[in-house]
Amino acid sequence: MDKRKEFESIVSEYSEQLYFMIRRIVLTHEDANDVLQNTFLKAWNAYDTFNRGSKLSTWLTRIAINESLDQLRRNKHMASAAAEDLSVADSLMADDFFDGNETEAMLQEAIAQLPEVQRTVFTLRYYDEMKYSDISKILNTSEGALKASYHIAVKKITEFFKERD
Amino acid sequence: MNEEMYIQEKVGKRNPFRVPEGYFDNLTAQVMQNLPEQPKRRAKSVFMRPVFYAAASVCALLVAGAAWMWHPAAEVSSAEPVQAKAVSQPQQQENADGYFDEAADYMMLDNHEIYAYLAESN
Fold this sequence. Notes:
The complex is a heterodimer.
Chain A lengths: L2 H24 L2 H17 L10 H26 L6 H6 L8 H11 L3 H11 L5 H8 L3 H22 L1
Chain B lengths: L2 H9 L11 H12 L14 H22 L11 H7 L7 H12 L3 H11 L1
Helix pairs in contact in B: 3-4, 3-6
C-alpha cells in the first residue's frame, strides 16, 4: 500500500482516541486540535523510522502525551505573563465545548493542579482504564513508580474535594 | 471508603468534553492536507546533543565577549545574531530535551553546519 494511504488509515483509526486523550490533558478544544495536528505531523515525519515490531498505538500515544505536555508548558508560560486569572473550573464552565456539571469541572481543576506525571497517569488510568504495563511503555517509567504516582494523585484529588465539601 | 471509589461515586467517569459538529468527520482529510508530501526526517540525533550544547555554549561566549569588547559599559548590541540571542536565553532544566528540540529548530543548524562552525572557531 502507498505510504500516504497507509498513514491516512492510521489517522482515521486513531484520531478520535488520541484526541480525547489529549483533550483530557490540555482541556480546550482549540489546544487539543493543535496538539493532535502536531502529533500526526511528528508521527508522519518519523514514520520511516517507526519500528514495525513495536505497537503503533503505544508509539502514537507517546508522541501525543509529549506534545500535550509541551502545550501545557507553553500555556503556563503565557498565563504567567497575562493578567487573567480565571480558575480551571470557571474557565471550563464558561466553555461551549464542556457540558460537564460543576463537580466534573472541579475534578478537572484538581487534576490540573497535579504535577505532570501524576496528571498523565491519573487521566490514562482513570478515564482510559489503561493497564499499568501499557502506561509503562508509553511513559518509559516502571510500573511500580506509576502505581505510586496514581495512588498519590488519587489521594490529592480526594483531599481537594473534601476540603471543599 | 477506598479513595478511588470516593472519586468515582462523587464525579463518575462520563466524558464532559464536546467537539464542534462534524469535527471528526472532516478530521482525517484536514490532517492529511497539513502533512508534507513526504516525511521530513530531522537531521539531528541524541548522539550529537553534547556537540550541540558545546556549540551553543561557544555561541553564547562569543556574543558576550563581542558585546563586552565593542560596548564594555553599554547594553548588548541589537545587531547580534538571532541564533545567538536565542541561545543566550535562560533555559529551564525541567525539560532540557523539549527546549533542546525547540533550540535546534530555531537555530536551523544541521550536523554539517555544526562541524563547520566548530572547525572555524578552533
